[in-house]
Amino acid sequence: MLIALFLFVTVPLVELYLLIEVGRGIGALYTIALCLLTAAMGTALLRQQGIQTLSRARVNLDRGTLPAIELVEGVALAVGGILLLTPGFVTDVIGFACLLPPTRRLFVSFVLRRVKTPPSDSDKPDRITIEGEYERRDRPHD
């Protein structure tokens, strides 16, 4: 909670400072144009990367495997898209990092290393699975 409060106070203040300094250096209109340009570039990149991630997820589902990496990448893409639409340069850098495949893969691997999965039945040595067929011999109740 304390970290979230710190981020919600610090990030906007850093963004304001950078916007003022960049505006002072290149002018207010150019600063606004730069913010709009990064938002447009981010939207195009988000669309492209989102389609690629969705197609990889469909391939995994067709194979019968869980698209876990693609799901986490989808979250990273959504976060990156939101950050790119937020005015500011710090959020743009983090947003682009979420959208670019190499840095997004680093983020995804970091998240997946920290996620603990519940043990499955095959992980428990005291359970034995007996495969076979059965036939119902009693009559079902009406």
Instruction: Give the terminus-to-terminus CA distance.
Output: 57 Å
Pairing-aware structural class of the strands and helices?
A: mainly alpha
Uncertain stretches of 5 or more adjacent residues: none
Number of helix segments?
A: 5
Helicity, in percent?
over 70%
Number of strands: 0
CA-based gyration radius: 24 Å
Largest sheet: none
Strand content: under 5%
Folded structure, characterized:
There is one protein chain. With 142 residues, this protein is mainly α. It has a domain at 36-116. It has five helices and no strands. The chain has helices at residues 2-26, 28-63, 68-85, 89-99, 101-114. Helix 3 (68-85) packs across helix 5. The mean pLDDT is 85.
Outline the fold blueprint.
Elements: H1 2-26, H2 28-63, H3 68-85, H4 89-99, H5 101-114
Helix pairs in contact: 1-2, 2-3, 2-4, 3-4, 3-5
Provide a concise account of the structure shown.
The protein contains five helices and no strands.
Task: Describe this protein with a few key phrases.
142 residues; mainly alpha
